[in-house]
Design brief:
By secondary structure, this protein is of the alpha/beta class. 33% of the residues lie in helices and 17% in strands. The strands form two sheets. An eight-stranded mixed beta sheet has the order 3-2-1-4-5-6-14-15. A seven-stranded mixed beta sheet has the order 9-8-7-10-11-13-12, covered by helices on one side. Strand 1, helix 1 (20-28) and strand 2 (32-36) form a beta-alpha-beta unit. Helix 5 runs parallel beside helix 6 and helix 5 packs antiparallel against helix 10. The longest helix has 22 residues, at 314-335.
């Protein structure tokens, strides 16, 4: 099979879909790989390293889309909409429900799109809901959120937006900040662990108690947990310095859990980080920000809503992404779309098949 690895075009995005090690494994099984020039440069992977692994270097995006399987990280950008070849497979994060123009372009292309955010473990059950590729990125995004929050709470740094001037973890004689995390999955759990390790007072809301025992056991400090209740959240927000939204409904847009009045009730200079902004976000005040312009202020609260948060640590994120994605790339390279017949988890990632929406969740969101 012919496999292409484009250089990511989303602003601030410098992860790459495959490493030279995986390229070498593919080439060893007689697959041809073309990598766009400088695709891995930002994570220390040179074109020479890809050549040594057996890849051909493509001079532009068109060269790496003229293949059978395209392996990306983030969704296609406007300049790439016309590039997928009819009958080709495009593998990466897709987020169709929040970008109608991309959905229209994908349907018109005649290509097949498999979404990393909905690929599931082959042994998935409704109880575990394990999404291995998404979880790898979610854990990184969650771990980053308290670090970004700690910066945004400061005052006077050019990257911040007039935060409250509070030290997240406090020091002797100075109380730490209060952190509220909504969600206890991969990103919410990682955020709670990081904030707890930094010394903050942490409360976690989740849809059920299922993950609470494991989360408490994994946190360095004491955390409070509660089943999500809007009234209970409203009561906490006036004393909350950092609010982290970490809600995921796989393949769906995020539920709106926070209205403008709730944000306005937070202290002046408090911070809200919405990890799930690539699925629309959970707050009425959520709107997409960028790595090169991460903060904005609504109702006196500093917001950070970066849809590709793991790209802030592209080397670590690429390693985690490729490790999670590799078995699916190998299977698709070997079997093509027939791989979906052998792996029910991979099949759950199929969203568009040659001009048709085949994922029921995506179809429902598109009707809204």
């Amino acid at each position: 099979m012919r496999i292409g690895v484009p250089r990511e075009k989303k602003p601030g995005e410098s992860r790459v879909g495959l490493t030279p090690a995986v390229v070498a494994a593919l080439v060893a099984h007689d697959h041809a790989v073309v990598v766009e020039r400088d695709a891995g440069l930002a994570v220390g992977l040179s074109d020479d390293a890809y050549r040594a692994a057996g890849a051909r270097i493509g001079e532009d995006a068109a060269a790496v889309f003229d293949v059978d399987l395209v392996v990306k990280v983030k969704e296609l950008q406007t300049s790439e909409y016309a590039l997928p070849r009819r009958g080709a497979i495009v593998l990466g994060f897709q987020q169709f429900a929040v970008e109608p123009a991309f959905l229209d372009a994908a349907l018109a292309s005649g290509a097949t799109f498999i979404a990393c955010e909905t690929i599931a473990s082959a042994t998935i059950t409704s109880a575990t809901n394990e999404l291995p590729v998404l979880a790898a990125m979610s854990r990184i995004a969650g771990a980053l959120a308290p670090q970004i929050g700690a910066l945004a709470l400061t005052r006077g740094l050019p990257q911040s937006a007039s935060g409250a001037g509070i030290l997240l973890g406090g020091v002797d004689g100075i109380a730490p900040a209060t952190v509220v995390v909504i969600g206890a999955g991969a990103s919410g759990g990682a955020a709670a662990r990081a904030a707890s390790a930094m010394g903050a007072n942490v409360t976690v809301f989740a849809a059920s108690t299922r993950r609470f025992d494991a989360l408490k056991a994994s946190c360095a400090g004491h955390i409070e947990t509660a089943v999500f209740d809007a009234h209970a959240l409203r009561a906490l927000l006036p004393a909350t310095h950092l609010l982290i939204g970490a809600v995921l409904i796989a393949g769906r847009t995020s539920p709106r859990l926070i209205d403008r009045a709730m944000i306005a009730s937070m202290p002046a200079g408090a911070v809200f980080i919405d990890i799930g902004i690539d699925q629309r976000g959970i707050a009425e005040t959520s709107r997409t920000s960028r790595i090169d312009d991460p903060f904005y202020v609504e109702e006196g609260v500093v917001h950070c809503c970066i849809p590709n948060l793991p790209a802030l640590v592209p080397k670590s994120a690429t390693e985690a992404y490729v490790a999670a994605l590799e078995p699916y790339v190998i299977a698709l390279a070997k079997h093509g779309l027939a791989a979906l017949d052998h792996d029910s988890g991979l099949a759950r990632g199929l969203q568009i098949d040659r001009g048709r929406i085949v994922d029921a969740r995506l179809a429902e969101d598109c009707r809204k």
